[in-house]
Design the sequence.
């Protein structure tokens, strides 16, 4: 019955309901505003859980696909001769598959938790929550879109709310951070758009025969399926070099080198988001300046869009190029891991430790991607989910600690385990999850990524394993610095978690433990998610 | 076959796990719940373990293995499961027995602590993890529990978290063992990709490496073995990763007995024994194990001579004894290694719990501040004395038999290591007699109101004393019961033990006698050495400057690198991007300046644009 509903659109746009209600609420009724926003984030969570329960990995997400023509732009028919139609199709095309299902769930879960964590917001609740819900719509849409232009629209939809959320509700240097955020991501988007336009103009070209009318319909579109199939099918236009077309000029042909260029563009565009060294400096500012609940979203979900895009467009569409570049990607991953970890060791501010730790952990994702095998790709996705949950949890705690102590400088904190044993316990467990303790989610992602990569790149993996040690160093240094040791006088009176803080903490931790103990919750929907990609890779290897 | 006890062996770790969960949920503010749940669950585990062991000592097939798919998708199947072999059955009893006694003992020792239920929940979690480690049927499952015991150890070392020393020690314990764990992880990765069918379970590992058919290349085998050993080095405190273990004594003393003497630190030895076939397939790896073990034995024993903290002396002793075990394994005698693990678990747990009893009474850990306790603490003195004799290798106490077996093997395999072992045995006896005489003999020092500990603490001492005295008889030169049972008689026996027995007993007695001469009789001045060679004593007191070496070689460079990169990140990486954005702004400014209304300027821009377009069009051909 679920297939009869436009479930994907419902998930994506259900926060709109919240926005509508918020618009009619008076702006000083903070309790009502908060409650509305929280409920509005619970809607997509429930719907996504429903979808998850109904999802059958053997069939994939075909049953839920939704398509509607958004805009057909007719192009000049005379230019191409006798055809039925010649147009540029903008499609509203939503779908879900093994790659997006886990990320959808992550977004929905982190969304609710961040909404709960936003109780610490002190001013202008109404506009805060409206931006927040818009942001959520954008994120959900990014993972559900099946058309490059739709993807782009949703992707941009996340930027603007983030800009305001950082710029208005952040800490001291919020405006600079917001500007920097917009600048970097704007450049990333521009590069992404260039890559998309090239893709649509070449691989997005379709010629459909209509036998009864004895004519051909020509069109350009941005559908993932069309682009991916065209790129991989030997007899499609993009793959016909001039020699194959008997000297006729083929404007759709993508040469090897052109593919490299597109791949590089995508790598940079999504590398900024991920972030890949040296494009990471903007996210440090966001981590330190944005309000913690926004960082939960940022670190928990937005960074994942980078990895998702890299996989979806870079690797899925250009498996052959990815194969050529896998050593480079793995090395980028190792650089991320070690660079982030070494820097995290010397930071004096807990939020910066976590920011560099994010860089380090996203490096593991790159390793998983670089493995280009089933094990590593599973590892990469699980690492995405796991890091999303863990960093959301960590920033949730950061928010609670800041609320009580007014500082996240390591030197101001200490011995909190005495006055707030509950929060300290959760913090320590989150740290353990972050350093890859088995039984918690971090281990699965890390282990599978390393295991997958080891098959083809043993030396790189060995270097990457050093990160495992360094992670322990910075996690323990910072977290023990906060929870263990002597407690500064003025912190003696701080209280432990309130219920509204404890609920999201426990929930996030429960997911972290669940994935760690029973990873099938994630691997089950991911089954067959990489089938076509791996098939193409093995074909390439066979040739 | 009917249901056997081995089939339900999974219950053994489950008991403490349930206790842990219950304490986690209801433990807050409770004082007696922890003692109750901890003791009951560990006792239940003990009973079941003994039943399993009895079953395994009787005839007939009793091997049992069960596993299920844990991580499973196309291209990967990872199982989790448990198996019960003779070795695991023996370890189960050791772990549950010591764990039960420590649970009982802690009821007295930790009585005044307000976080006693937290303590018990950690201990329960540890017991669960340790038993899981013992029962694991494959490398991945073992690794998972391996990490979990590490975390429990970390939590318990840092139990008194407000103390800066405890915080530092906990951190150090975790990070140093983590270095070893990274090696083990790599070993598992290597094993996974080279094993036929990617099997990681011990049965397949045994078959592949045992057959000597060369399924896996010799160099790879060596690497796998060495990497696994790196894990064992970290966990079992072997040189050069031993530095965490003495510091770990910041934890409550019952924990030192349970985790840092009897069970977890022996996990490294157990791991090597579990994967013994891999090691035996590579002579290089065996040599590495043997020499590292031998070196650690003498290295730590000499440090033990110069320490004054009662627990640290015992900690270095543990490091040294673990070295003996590793040496035995490296010499090809799994029986020797496991036998010493077995006896050591009892006498070292006894010594630590005895030390705990002493600390409980005098509230100091410095042996120079103690003295004459034998008059006030009869039970502690007697039981501690038995532990001392067992550790010093005096017949007929248990340590004598197991050490004798190792030395005997060494004499036949590598005489150099025999010499090292004998020397280490001498130092062992000497530092133990120094410890014993300083603490229990002589005159009481200071205003001490020492008294015997409560029954909850002395009864475990008595039980352990009986075991420390008698447990050596399961394997003597005349009766190879343990060896036959553990290895199905596959391991070669070394006859002619007479001379070794005489030497090892003599060396032990000599060490004790010397200690008596120095610290009781006073025939030899206490500063006999320190006055002649102060540098030597300082070298030992400072533990061969190992901590300083680590500080200089690893910690500082890492921190320095961090600061360097931090500066680069701030000024260069960030700066470059600033430059790029600055350029964009500059272009924008330039653009506005170009729009000045003069036709000439527009003309230049047009021509430039045309050139760019042309270049782009022509250039496209070359793509």
Sequence:
């Amino acid at each position: 019955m679920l297939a009869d509903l436009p479930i994907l659109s419902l998930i994506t746009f259900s926060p709109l309901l919240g926005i509508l209600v918020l618009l009619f609420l008076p702006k000083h009724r903070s309790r009502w505003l908060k409650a509305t926003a929280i409920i509005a984030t619970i809607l997509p969570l429930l719907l996504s859980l429903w979808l998850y329960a109904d999802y059958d990995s053997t069939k994939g997400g075909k049953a839920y696909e939704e398509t509607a023509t958004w805009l057909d732009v007719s192009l000049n028919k005379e230019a191409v001769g006798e055809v039925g139609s010649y147009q540029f199709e903008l499609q509203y095309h939503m779908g879900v598959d093994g790659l997006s299902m886990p990320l959808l769930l992550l977004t929905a879960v982190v969304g609710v938790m961040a909404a709960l964590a936003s109780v610490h917001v002190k001013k202008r609740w109404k506009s805060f929550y409206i931006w927040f819900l818009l942001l959520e719509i954008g994120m959900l849409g990014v993972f559900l879109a099946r058309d490059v232009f739709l993807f782009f629209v949703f992707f941009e939809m996340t930027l603007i709310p983030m800009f305001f959320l950082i710029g208005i509700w952040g800490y001291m240097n919020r405006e600079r951070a917001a500007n920097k955020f917009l600048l970097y991501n704007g450049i990333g988007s521009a590069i992404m758009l260039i890559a998309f336009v090239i893709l649509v103009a070449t691989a997005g070209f379709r010629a459909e025969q209509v036998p009864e009318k004895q004519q051909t319909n020509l069109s350009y579109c941005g559908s993932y399926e069309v682009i991916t199939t065209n790129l991989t099918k030997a007899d499609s236009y993009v793959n016909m070099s001039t020699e194959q077309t008997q000297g006729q000029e083929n404007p759709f042909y993508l040469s090897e080198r052109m593919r490299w260029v597109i791949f590089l563009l995508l790598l940079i565009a999504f590398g900024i988001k991920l972030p890949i060294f040296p494009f990471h400096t903007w996210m440090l500012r966001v981590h330190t300046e944005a309000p913690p609940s926004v960082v939960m979203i940022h670190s928990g979900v937005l960074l994942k869009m980078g990895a998702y895009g890299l996989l979806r467009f870079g690797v899925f569409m250009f498996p052959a190029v990815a194969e050529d570049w896998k050593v480079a990607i793995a090395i980028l991953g190792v650089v991320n891991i070690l660079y982030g970890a070494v820097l995290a060791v010397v930071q004096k501010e807990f939020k910066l430790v976590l920011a560099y730790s994010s860089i380090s952990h996203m490096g593991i994702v790159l390793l998983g991607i670089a493995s280009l095998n089933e094990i590593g790709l599973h590892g990469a996705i699980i690492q995405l989910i796991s890091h999303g949950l863990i960093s959301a949890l960590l920033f949730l705690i950061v928010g609670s600690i800041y609320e009580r102590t007014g500082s996240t400088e390591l030197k101001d904190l200490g011995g909190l385990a005495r006055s707030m044993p509950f929060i300290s316990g959760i913090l320590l467990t989150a740290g353990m999850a972050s350093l890859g303790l088995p039984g918690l989610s971090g281990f699965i992602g890390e282990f599978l990524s390393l295991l997958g990569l080891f098959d083809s790149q043993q030396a790189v993996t060995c270097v990457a394993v050093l990160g495992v040690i360094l992670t322990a160093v910075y996690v323990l240094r910072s977290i023990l610095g906060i929870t263990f040791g002597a407690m500064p006088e003025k912190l003696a009176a701080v209280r432990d978690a309130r219920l509204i803080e404890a609920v999201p903490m426990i929930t996030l931790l429960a997911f972290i433990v669940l994935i760690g103990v029973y990873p099938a919750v994630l691997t089950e929907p991911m089954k067959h998610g990489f089938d076509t990609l791996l098939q193409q890779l093995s074909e390439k290897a066979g040739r | 076959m009917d249901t056997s006890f081995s089939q339900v062996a999974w219950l053994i770790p489950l008991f403490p796990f349930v206790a842990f969960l219950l304490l986690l949920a209801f433990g807050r503010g409770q004082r007696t719940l922890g003692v109750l749940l901890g003791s009951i669950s560990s006792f239940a585990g003990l009973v079941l373990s003994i039943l399993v062991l009895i079953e395994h000592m009787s005839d007939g097939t009793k091997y049992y293995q069960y596993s299920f798919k844990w991580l499973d998708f196309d291209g990967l199947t990872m199982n989790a499961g448990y198996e019960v072999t003779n070795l695991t059955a023996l370890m189960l009893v050791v772990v549950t027995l010591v764990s039960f006694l420590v649970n009982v003992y802690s009821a007295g020792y930790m009585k005044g602590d307000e976080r006693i239920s937290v303590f018990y929940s950690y201990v329960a979690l540890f017991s669960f993890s340790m038993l899981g480690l013992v029962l694991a049927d494959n490398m991945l499952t073992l690794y998972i529990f391996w990490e979990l015991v590490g975390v429990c150890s970390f939590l318990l070392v840092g139990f008194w978290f407000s103390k800066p020393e405890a915080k530092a020690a906990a951190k150090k314990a975790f990070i140093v063992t983590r270095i070893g764990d990274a090696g083990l992880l790599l070993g598992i990765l290597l094993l996974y990709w080279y094993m036929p069918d990617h099997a990681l379970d011990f049965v397949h590992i045994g078959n592949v490496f045992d057959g000597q058919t060369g399924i896996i290349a010799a160099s790879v085998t060596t690497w796998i073995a060495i990497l696994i050993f790196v894990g064992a080095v970290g966990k079992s405190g072997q040189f050069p990763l031993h530095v965490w273990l003495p510091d770990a004594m910041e934890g409550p003393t019952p924990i030192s007995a349970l985790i840092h003497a009897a069970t977890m630190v022996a996990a490294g030895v157990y791991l090597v024994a579990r994967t013994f076939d891999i090691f035996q397939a590579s002579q290089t790896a065996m040599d590495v194990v043997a020499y590292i073990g031998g070196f650690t034995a003498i290295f730590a024993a000499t440090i033990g001579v110069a320490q004054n903290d009662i627990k640290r002396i015992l900690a270095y002793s543990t490091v040294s004894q673990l070295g003996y075990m590793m040496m035995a394994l490296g010499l090809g005698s799994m029986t020797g290694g496991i036998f010493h693990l077995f006896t050591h678990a009892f006498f070292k747990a006894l010594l630590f719990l005895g030390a705990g009893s002493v600390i409980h009474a005098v509230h100091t850990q410095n042996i120079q501040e103690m003295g004459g306790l034998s008059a006030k603490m009869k039970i502690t003195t007697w039981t501690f004395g038995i532990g001392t004799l067992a550790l010093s290798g005096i017949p007929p106490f248990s340590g004598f038999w197991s050490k004798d077996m190792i030395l005997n093997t060494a004499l036949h395999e590598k005489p150099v290591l025999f010499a090292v072992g004998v020397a280490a045995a001498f130092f062992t006896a000497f530092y133990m007699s120094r410890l014993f005489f300083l603490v229990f003999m002589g005159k009481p020092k200071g205003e001490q109101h020492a008294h015997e500990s409560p029954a909850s603490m002395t009864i475990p001492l008595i039980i352990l004393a009986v075991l420390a005295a008698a447990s050596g008889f399961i394997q003597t030169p005349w009766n190879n019961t343990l060896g036959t049972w553990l290895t199905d008689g596959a391991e070669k026996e070394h006859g002619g033990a007479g001379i070794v027995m005489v030497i090892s007993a003599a060396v032990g007695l000599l060490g004790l006698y010397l200690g008596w001469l120095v610290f009781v009789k006073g025939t030899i001045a206490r500063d006999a050495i320190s006055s002649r060679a102060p540098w030597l004593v300082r070298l030992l007191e400072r533990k061969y400057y190992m901590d300083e070496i680590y500080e200089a070689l690893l910690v500082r460079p890492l921190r320095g690198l961090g600061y360097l990169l931090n500066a680069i990140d701030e000024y260069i990486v960030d700066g470059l991007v600033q430059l790029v954005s600055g350029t964009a702004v500059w272009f924008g400014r330039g653009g506005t300046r170009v729009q000045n209304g003069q036709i000439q300027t527009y003309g230049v821009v047009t021509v430039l644009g045309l050139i760019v377009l042309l270049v782009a069009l022509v250039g496209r051909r070359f793509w």
Summary: Chain A has a mean pLDDT of 89.
